[in-house]
User: What shape does this take?
Amino acid sequence: NAGVTQTPKFRILKIGQSMTLQCTQDMNHNYMYWYRQDPGMGLKLIYYSVGAGITDKGEVPNGYNVSRSTTEDFPLRLELAAPSQTSVYFCASAGASGTEAFFGQGTRLTVV
Amino acid sequence: GQQLNQSPQSMFIQEGEDVSMNCTSSSIFNTWLWYKQDPGEGPVLLIALYKAGELTSNGRLTAQFGITRKDSFLNISASIPSDVGIYFCAGQQGGSEKLVFGKGMKLTVNP
Assistant: This one.
């Protein structure tokens, strides 16, 4: 059972480039989340989805976009990468009330 | 946005010692969770608490949902080297689909 799978694991982007962070889950969870983790700052919610076709902003959505066309996939798009987006990004999914979230292994992104 | 205050921020202990950490909020939460993150990995759920006053154990870990519903505690007994990592508290408020996370506590265990 794969759980939550994120790709890529590492990426270096130049300022102004764009990329998509992929996230897929095989647990048939309705809830999916994108967090970013900066050193000493915990996890901050970027976007979340309560089901296919439904997305909503979290605490730090600026500079990012998401889509949820299927239950399994929840990609995160960076359109114009900036150094402030250097971080570790985690995707998570949860069933039922969205409480017990399962996390992927993360994508470490550096923008130079 | 809503924040959880997690303390201490870090701890250095000897193998075999117990360690306690807590998480507080100015608001009421309906659910409290504790996660552990190993280096280079995503957080893994340790314990979930759903009822005020609830005390739940998972091996050497014990967590409690505070009576006021504004705090939670995690205790690790007889620490071992593999307990090293960052421990996060998280809470969910009533009617919310989102979890709020604390900033984490970095635990170092000296053999």
